[in-house]
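User: Design a sequence. Structure:
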């Protein structure tokens, strides 16, 4: 038994000596003329040396933690701290020298915000409309009529929102052409869809929605894909049609909200038979022809069902 204890202490001394050697040569066991006469005296002596080594190791580690600089990373200031956003929409009431610009904005958590439209010919935005004060929270429609346009001219435009600190967010660029002759007009763009936050979340269901603006593309198929694996939703570009999107029971599902949607409106539907206390990811999409089959999807959102 005594031999086992001595062997164990010697092993520990070796471990501590190795750990301390790279840090300080003073951590080596002290040498002297002491000669233990019995195994008991040897064991006491070795325990004493072990205690010294433990104390030195603790001191070395403490000094290291104090002297080493704390690793920090420079945090990049986000360009959208208030989560403001803007979405350009197709204009309406297009005339020979006039048009009404349309879009919607959300000031996020910014106490105040302003919105306006930039427009111009070619690839430039040389003009801007009057500024509209955004006084309400949540999404709201912004429209401004302009009457200084030229007949038969193509204009590019986009909506802009600016928060109280001067941070701006731009809507996607769209274009239209003013009327040159009576009853002729054209504009180009694409449908816009935004995945909205889940509401009425319970242990077995939730209400999912998307806000869709067809931007005068006659009609479209509005649907939502959801599941427990976010990567499956990020791979939707691999499929050309809604019917091609695979469904894996318990992992990925899909459902149609509107088979023949036109205009601008919120599309919503309740999904049931979900698992409790489970995080789900979902995305709203619209499938349309222009003139070939195309598709637009919003951002992937998530929610967790109740327990």
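Assistant: Done.
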């Amino acid at each position: 038994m005594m031999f086992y204890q001595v062997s164990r202490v010697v092993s520990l001394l070796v471990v501590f000596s190795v750990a301390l050697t790279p840090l300080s040569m003073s951590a080596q066991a002290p040498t002297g003329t002491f000669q233990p006469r019995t195994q008991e005296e040897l064991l006491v002596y070795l325990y004493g040396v072990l205690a010294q080594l433990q104390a030195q190791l603790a001191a070395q580690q403490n000094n290291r933690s104090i002297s080493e600089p704390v690793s920090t990373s420079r945090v990049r200031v986000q360009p959208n701290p208030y989560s403001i956003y803007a979405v350009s929409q197709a204009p309406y009431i297009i005339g020979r020298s006039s048009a009404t610009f349309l879009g919607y904005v959300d000031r996020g958590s910014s106490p105040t915000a302003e919105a306006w439209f930039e427009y111009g010919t070619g690839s430039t935005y040389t003009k801007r409309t009057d500024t509209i004060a955004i006084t309400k929270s949540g999404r709201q429609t912004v429209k401004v009529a302009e009457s200084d346009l030229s007949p038969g001219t193509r204009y590019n435009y986009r909506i802009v929102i600016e928060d109280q600190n001067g941070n701006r967010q731009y809507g996607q660029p769209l274009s239209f052409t003013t009327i040159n002759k009576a009853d002729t007009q054209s504009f180009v763009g694409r449908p816009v869809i935004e995945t909205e936050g889940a509401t009425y979340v319970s242990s077995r269901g939730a209400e999912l929605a998307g806000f869709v603006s067809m931007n005068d593309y006659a009609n479209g198929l509005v649907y939502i894909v959801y599941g427990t694996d976010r990567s499956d939703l990020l791979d939707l570009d691999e499929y050309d049609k809604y019917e091609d999107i695979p469904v894996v029971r318990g992992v990925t599902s899909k459902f149609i909200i509107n088979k023949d949607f036109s205009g601008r409106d919120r599309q919503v539907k309740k999904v049931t038979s979900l698992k409790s206390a489970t995080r789900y990811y979902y995305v709203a999409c619209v499938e349309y022809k222009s003139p070939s089959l195309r598709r637009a999807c919003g951002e992937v959102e998530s929610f967790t069902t109740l327990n």
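The helical segments are 2-20, 39-67, 230-234. Residues 39-67 form the longest helix (29 residues).
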